[in-house]
């Protein structure tokens, strides 16, 4: 079994999966869509990846505001979580993703990715950061209720 991490955005979903031992997260792809409200193809692709990687659990980034409140973007992420649970039948956990995009940008800068190319990778890297945080907490026996 593996765990899938998702960075849900208005036009993209970054996807990462764990290794079979649930130690490390690897970025897989970025699913792009033309309309924020059109999720059928996005959910179908996620289901394909679940089958391909033998995923048994999903983690979705929870974009809380910096003051720990739940804004519009976080509400949309909760709705996405509900759709994922209904469609896949898998447990879906929310993971606080504040500053994951900032961290992803920092990783790309340190890796020498040119500024104009960063948008091509940021969602996949953010999904990897979200999933790695979840895996690290899980391995130390910490609380997985991070929202």
CATH class: Alpha Beta
The average pLDDT score comes to: 86
The end-to-end distance, rounded to whole angstroms, is 24 Å
User: Globular, elongated, flat, extended or rod-shaped: what is the shape?
Assistant: globular
**Count of distinct strands:** 5
Domain module tally:
1
Helical content stands at 40-55%
Order of helices and strands: EEEHEHEHH
Q: What is the chains' assembly state?
A: single chain
Q: How big a fraction of the residues is strand?
A: 15-25%
Q: Architecture, according to CATH?
A: 2-Layer Sandwich
Uncertain segments are none
CATH topology: Nucleotidyltransferase, domain 5
Short description:
The protein is α/β, with parallel strands linked by helices. It contains 4 helices and 5 strands, in the order E-E-E-H-E-H-E-H-H.
Please give a structural write-up:
- The model has no long low-confidence stretch (mean pLDDT 86).
- The chain is of the alpha/beta class and 147 residues long.
- β2 (12-18) and β3 (25-32) form a beta hairpin.
- It is globular, with a radius of gyration of 14 Å.
- The protein contains four helices and five strands, in the order βββαβαβαα.
- The longest helix has 18 residues, at 122-139.
- It has helices at 40-53, 72-88, 100-110, 122-139; strands at 2-8, 12-18, 25-32, 55-62, 92-96.
- It has a single domain, classed as YqgF/RNase H-like domain (Nucleotidyltransferase, domain 5, 2-Layer Sandwich), CATH 3.30.420.
Architecture blueprint of SSEs:
Elements: E1 2-8, E2 12-18, E3 25-32, H1 40-53, E4 55-62, H2 72-88, E5 92-96, H3 100-110, H4 122-139
Parallel strand pairs: 1-4, 4-5
Antiparallel strand pairs: 1-2, 2-3
Helix pairs in contact: 3-4
């Amino acid at each position: 079994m593996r765990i899938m991490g998702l960075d849900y955005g208005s036009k993209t979903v970054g996807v990462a999966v764990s290794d079979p031992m649930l130690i490390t997260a690897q970025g897989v792809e970025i699913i792009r869509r033309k309309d924020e409200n059109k999720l059928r193809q996005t959910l179908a692709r996620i289901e394909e990846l679940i089958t391909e990687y033998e995923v048994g659990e999903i983690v979705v980034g929870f974009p809380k505001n910096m003051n720990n409140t739940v804004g519009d973007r976080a509400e949309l992420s909760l709705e996405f979580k509900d759709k994922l649970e209904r469609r896949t039948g898998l447990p879906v956990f929310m993971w606080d993703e504040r500053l994951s995009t900032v961290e992803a940008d920092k990783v790309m800068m340190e890796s020498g990715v040119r500024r104009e190319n960063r948008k091509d990778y940021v969602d996949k890297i953010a999904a990897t950061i979200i999933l790695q945080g979840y895996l690290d907490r899980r391995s130390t026996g910490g609380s997985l209720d991070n929202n």
